Amino acid sequence: MLKLPSPCYVLEASKLLDNLKVFEHIQHNTGCKIILALKGFAMWGAFDLMRPYLHGATASSLHEAMLAKEFGREVHVYAPAYKESEFSQLMALADHITFNSVSNWQRFQQDIAQSSKYTACALRINPEISEVSTALYNPCARGSRLGIVADQMPESIEEIEGFHVHALCGSDDQALARLLQAIEEKFSHWLPHIKWLNLGGGHHITRQGYDVAHLIQLLNAFSQKHQVQLYLEPGEAVGWQTGYLTSTVLDVVHNDVDIAILDTSAAAHMPDCLEMPYRPDVRGAKEVGVLAHDYRLGGASCLAGDVMGDYSFAQPLEVGQSIIFEDMIHYTFVKNNTFNGIQLPALAIQDLDGHMNILRQFSYDDYKYRLS
Ligand SMILES: Cc1ncc(COP(=O)(O)O)c(C=O)c1O
User: Fold this and answer.
1) d(CA 141, CA 144)
2) Which of 9, 33, 198, 253 is least enclosed, having the fewest CB within 10 Å?
3) Which residue has a Cα nearest atom 4 of ligand 1?
4) Is the CB of 239 under 6 A from ligand 1?
5) What's the 294 CA to ligand 1 centre distance in angstroms?
6) 3-class SS at 303?
7) In terms of pTM, does the model score above 0.90?
8) Dihedral (C-alpha) 220, 14, 242, 11: value to the nearest 10 degrees?
9) Is 37's C-beta closer than 6 angstroms to any atom of ligand 1?
10) What is the CATH number of domain 13-239?
């Protein structure tokens, strides 16, 4: 077996395929199109595997749009605001472009009209439902800059073909039902004029217990009633439980508790642990006090709070041993940074036939040339 570099993210292709088959089932039974939100999972080494199952990719910037083009199917773009200097390039790449505000749409209306290439335009609406308790992740929190609330909508939306809404995060089918209801209640005036509705991300479809049959029922009822093509653009649900981050113990110190210092970092490699915050599962470890040896797992940066959490292990931890963090594929390497110059984890994929391929290893140049 190939020895993995440390730290290293490993995507398990068979697990990704399991998720993709759930999306295939939904698309087959609804006619809804599911596209990949690159912001959550942008491992282009796995595009060949995903391409047959997903209708395209959605981008939130010019660079993501360029990568979405490489995906090779529909390219969707949404960003909170577009830049004059990038807009023509975005138009050239995008099949669908969504504007976050009426003013940003109006600013580019002339460019759209004069473009030789057709790009379908949409507005992002804000249904003002708060389904997400963590404010940092709640697009509909009071004062949110994301999307147009109903009382700010223009009366007529003639050149607009679609609506986009992103109001969920790690949510279930019941939350989707409430979202659809809020859209009907608040945006009924405009619904007859649109051809498609993109329901954004935040649908935790591949999580155990998600009621896929109910999702199918909801999507079919809505699309038939309003005669719209529906889209979903999950990120987390695509990469959910599809791989891990392997790391190494560099030192064990003691200050009130035993602390293992690892060659990875919550701040640089798993930022959601600090932002959400949440505690990742560690292979073979349990809650503190359950197994014989308790440890705090800490990162290699100088940030005092660079801590992944407290765990218990059956055996004492030793320098050089591997620590494996589970479910570390979505919203991890897409957010990585080189804070403290810490080594970026390598990227690997375990193929469907079980072979381990190291896709990329990072070097001093990757650190140096982001600086000047
Ligand atoms: C506009 C938009 N679409 C899709 C997504 C993907 O969401 P998730 O990864 O939770 O499915 C996000 C996440 O922030 C988003 O902002």
Assistant:
1) 5
2) 253
3) 201
4) no
5) 36
6) coil
7) yes
8) -130
9) yes
10) 3.20.20.10
